[in-house]
Sequence to fold (205 residues):
Amino acid sequence: MYRKKKILMIISIILTSFSVNTKATLIDIDNYTRDTDTALEWLDLTETVGLTYNEVQAQIMAGEELDGWRYADAAELISLIDSAGGDGVYGGINMGNQWSADNNGVVSNLLEHWGDSMGNNYMHVITDFNGLQTSLFYDSPDHDLASEQDYIYIGLHNDISPNMKGSSFGHALVRESLPIPEPTMLFLITAGLTLIAFTMKKRAQ
Fold:
């Protein structure tokens, strides 16, 4: 009985340790990316490149092709950048510097998961908070600063028409999802239960 309690205590400590140290992870699933920190799913930018705002609004209606998706708000977009390794200070809304060494590597991470809407390590994203705006993410190797800094500008005020069509514009569409347990946590739980069962069986013999 004492040994069983000791095993349970050890497993509990291990699980608690992993749950405390769990970090946000971006996971690619088909044509969208799941942020495990916020349980939000982000449609790949390449899925909406070339569509106008009005076309996207029509497609996110019930029963249409993009049913279930909606435009992300500013806080959700910032949370995605944070999950990609951002430091929380970005140009535009937060009035930070656009080029930032603290955010170096963030754009390449977003490009890998969210998609390269413009090509050449650019993401030009249409958002719908405080009116139609664009956000720009830039890490082109052709730029002098790109090797040490990333360019992130959220909510840049542009004269965007709802019918404007651009081959380089993707749309920031998001939807809620159910949280998925971390693979490491599942492994530990399974291993712990197996160990307990094996120990109890051995003692019974």
Q: What stands out?
A: The longest strand covers residues 122-128.
